[in-house]
Amino acid sequence: MEPISHFFYSDRLKLQFWDYGQDGKPALVLVHGALDHARNWDWVAQVLCGHYHVYALDLRGHGNSAWAPGAIYSVAEHVLDLSALLDIINDFPIRLVGHSLGGAVVLHYAGVYPARAKKSVSIEGLGFPPGHRVHGPASDRVRHWIETVRDLEKRRPKSYPNIDAAIARMKEVNPRLSDEVARHLTLHGTNWESDGSLLWKFDNYARAISPYGHHMEDAVELLSRIISPVLFFWGLESFLPVPEEDPRYQAVAHRRLIKVPNAGHWVHHDQLKLFLQEATEFLAEGSGQP
After folding, report:
1. What torsion, rounded to 10 degrees, do the Cα atoms 60, 63, 65, 68 define?
2. Torsion over CA of 57, 120, 53 and 51, rounded to 10 degrees?
3. 193 touches 199 (CB < 8 A)
């Protein structure tokens, strides 16, 4: 069954979320990563709907949500939008699952509103690793952001002549995707232009990393305020290093890390069965859920 599309407003933007149904069950919200969209959760949602009323958010500038001209697509802005959606759902404390940028958004929400998060699952969602330039001097960060935005102003987003070309690009980013999954993600992640070519739905300006909001000390303080349990997943073949020594990971008091072999950055695609088994058990612990 297809999820139902709904829209809501946050920060004067019209944003979309998908409702997978199961009224009367505890709410669970899924948050996708950067340059992605909510329908990447379809396979996860189909299983979690057995126990929860599942929702999935299209972040601002992604999927079918409005772009935000003049915004910097910071984690704080995404947390603002998530907070607006969760107030609409109004089932606190709530379970949250996020991937990559979405994982960071989920953790930030749980740190800003500790009593409102029941449990959180973060798939490679701590942010850029220590040593990345986003943790460097402020002058360098701001200069790089300015230059990136100015460069984006001169560029036109890349288009693809047909759906097969776009699918090929999807599989180039994650070669582990099956043809079926890659096609599904591409169909939900593109729009057609008048000449029949395809464009990704996300705002290209979302590529410009905010010069603020990645300060290590701020993140450690914020994540240290999380009082609910957090389950981390990390692919052992990811481009991001396993975060066991990362001070942000260590700041989360009630944490557990599952290191997943034969998986890259998209653990929930690369090892779906393992992810669903571990996440389902974690989300149900101590709640009377099966």
Report:
1. 40
2. 140
3. yes
Question: Residues near 199 by Cβ (< 8 Å), separated by ≥ 6?
Answer: 157, 158, 159, 160, 190, 191, 193
Amino acid residing at 74 = S
**Radius of gyration over every alpha carbon of the chain, rounded to an integer in angstroms:** 18
Q: What is the pTM of this model?
A: 0.96
Domains along the chain?
4-132+210-284 (3.40.50.1820)
Query: pLDDT category, 124, cuts 50, 70, 90?
Result: very high
pLDDT of residue 287: 63
Distance CA 94, CA 116 (A): 6
Supply 65's token pair: 């949500």
Cα–Cα distance for residue pair 200/223, rounded to 1 Å: 33
- Contact between residue 44 and residue 109 where contact means Cβ atoms under 8 Å apart: no
